[in-house]
Amino acid sequence: MADWKINPIKEDCEEVSEVPQWFPLDVAATIYPNARRYGWCTVYRFAFIMKEEVDPVVLKQALKDIAPRFPGFFVNVKSGLFWYYFERTEDLDIVEPEDYYPCRYIQICESTKPAMRILYYKNRISIETFHAIADGGAALVFNKTLVARYLELKGVKITRTEDIANIDEKPKKYEFEDSFRKNYKKMKGLTRKEETAYCYKAPAVKNYYKVIHGLIPVEDLKAAAKAHSMTITEFLMVAYLYAFYKTAPGKVYKPIKISIPASLRPRFDSKTLRNFSLYANIGFNPKGRTDITFDEIFEMVKGKMEQGLATEELHKMLCINARDASNPILRVVPNFLKKPVMQFIFDHAGENKFTSAMTNLGIVKLPPEMYEHVERVECLLGSSPTKKLLCAMITYNSMINISFTSDSEKTDVQREFFRVLSERGVRVRIECND
Amino acid sequence: MRCKECRVDLGENVKVCPLCGSAATDEKPMIENMKTAEYPEYGELRPLKYYIQKNDVYFGKWMMVGIVALSAVILAVSEIFNFLDTALYIVLPAIYAAAAIVYFLSSFKDKKHSRAAIYFIMLALFDGVITLVGYITTKGIGQAYFALGSGVVALLSLMLLATKYPREIDDELAGRLHR
Q1: Nearest Cβ partner of A22 from B43, B45, B171?
Q2: Residue A418: its chain B contacts at CB < 8 A?
Q3: Which range (A124-138, A220-234, A324-338) has the least confidence?
Q4: Residues of B in contact with A333 (CB under 8 A)
């Protein structure tokens, strides 16, 4: 997903004078509270590694200062009669020391706190968010603004650039927009039909979450990808597919597919600070073959990514999601009846269509003064009930940080993935939380 | 430190490669000037309940669950002991009217007073169904006067609350009904 700017203000940007206490979930967000289970919900983390130890008192103050600018983030999900909805909360007591595995469960519905938390440990500031609130692109704006304010309070003069939000301004109306509904068009013949993907299995460890970071210089990846006539994203995707293929316990007859999310903001000219991204599942079917090479996989998936992430394809998927969320029958079914159905849809019409996800948050740009104080930026995907391994990457300061997360101790795919890269001359530095 | 097997750099004090488990070798890293971003020692694995805190939940939800359960029990018992009409047209509307009054009074005390709005609508809905049943079975309003009255009590309570907290009630209903 590409980084995007917040500050170039549209001329029609009507400021929000009063944010309602309640507001509905956007189309993409509706699935998240429904899909949650006891002890699990979709959480992701952004972490900023500072050059100096984090001061929690200043961090709390920074959060307090930016809160009025981002009212859409200080919400929790509540269960209505027919739908879940957001309820605003004034409770800012969400800054706490990090003392447990990343992306742990965030309590929703019964909590009075926002569905997010901010953690600190030594030089690391981590912001964990429940996915219903916003997608990675929007959360990154919030997170960058929080860190910028933190540094300001520490005495660093930050130039106001378009990369962070101006906290002296009021929230804008377009930041609350449900861009799915706005861009919905009635279309015929839309279907979710897709082949079930190969399932990567690994024994889960309870209350455990392994993170493996691979730090890679962008120049190395560029050179390696160029040698194979691929783009960096294609190269990494093929390496990931290859890693699953090579580590499969036997012959694979189902397609190995990676879910690649894409931000819809630049394509549909949206500046919403809610969810507005979709994905394409890209992969290949080995059909029992065991001798497929890295380059052969590229030949098989060539063009699929371009096709899958084409605006027309994403628009179709946007329309399917918006259509289903507006279904009049679904709207009148009480929430307690809808939840199991939505959970079934999540498991069987979404999660089982891909083997793993690989999200690319793109290049993080910060105001120039911040580069002297921020060492590294990380992004982690929280666990999934069905996916045993997930991957997120983010680029900052000419380094790509590829983070694998798993609730299993198994590391075969990660090992194969990084070996594929190092065998092709890419320098890799591995760090782990365990 | 480096891992010879995986051909990757490792952190400064790493003894074992996190990818393959083989011993790290003391070699110069390929990528220079990198410092490990430390994670905390997690210590003991904590059960989930450690993190789940019960915050004050508006009591109305549980009262409504109780009312629905009580209604079901009364209807079941009345069927057996042959007082279905009394239960349906007198006992249940009386319970709903009493509940509406309790919701109304408590909503002035509770910080989350606006939450009662949805329960007034639910009570009015229950009363409405009973009134409709009464109307159909007796071809007139007949024995459903109590239910009709109880429904009016619920709606009146909602209206009074909305007069005092118009914005909150509007927001509440917008959220609840996904307007």
Answers
A1: B171
A2: 6, 8, 19
A3: A324-338
A4: none
Q: Tell me, what DSSP letter sits at residue A91?
A: -
Contact assignment for A85 to B176 by CB distance below 8 Å: yes
Q: How far apart are CA A30 and CA A330, in angstroms?
A: 12
Average pLDDT over residues A90-105: 90
- B102 φ/ψ angles, rounded to the nearest 5 degrees: -60, -45
Distance from CA of A304 to the nearest CA of B (A): 30
CA distance B143 to chain A (A): 30
Q: How far is Cα B124 from Cα A327, in angstroms, rounded to an integer? A: 26
Asked if the C-beta of B178 comes within 8 angstroms of chain A's C-beta atoms, the answer is yes
Which residue in A has a C-alpha nearest to residue B9's C-alpha? A429
List the domain boundaries for chain B: 1-31, 60-176
Contact A276, A28 (CB under 8 A): yes
- Residue A244: what pLDDT? 97
Strands, E assignment, A313-383: 356-363, 374-381
DSSP-H helix ranges across A154-285? 179-182, 218-227, 232-247, 265-268
Determine the pLDDT at residue A59. 97
Contacts of B18 in chain A (CB under 8 A): 212, 411, 430-432, 434
For B45, which of A86, A208, A433 is closest by C-beta distance?
Answer: A208
Q: CA dist A330 to A175, A219, A350, Å? A: 27, 50, 18
Instruction: Give dist(CA A193, CA A211) in Å, integer.
Output: 33
Contact B55 A121 (CB under 8 A): no
Q: Under an 8 A CB cutoff, do A207 and B36 touch?
A: no
Q: Which residues of A touch B57 (CB under 8 A)?
A: 110
pLDDT of the residue at B139 = 62
- Nearest C-alpha in B relative to A210: B18
Give pLDDT tens digits for A323-350: 888 888 877 888 888 888 888 888 877 7
Instruction: Residue A230: name the closest of A310, A311, A295, A292 by CA.
Output: A295
Domains belonging to chain A, first-starting first, are 22-182 (3.30.559.10), 210-363+384-432 (3.30.559.30)
* Secondary-structure percent of chain B, ordered helix, strand, coil, rounded to 5: 60, 5, 35
For B133-178, the pLDDT digits (tens) are: 888 887 666 678 889 999 999 999 999 988 888 877 887 777 666 5
Least confidently predicted of A328-342, A347-361, A378-392, B50-64: B50-64
Closest to B118 (Cβ–Cβ): which among A81, A98, A427?
A: A81
Is it the case that residue A110 has pLDDT exceeding 80? no
**ipTM value:** 0.85
CB A223 within 8 A of CB A310: no
Share of chain A above pLDDT 70, in %: 97
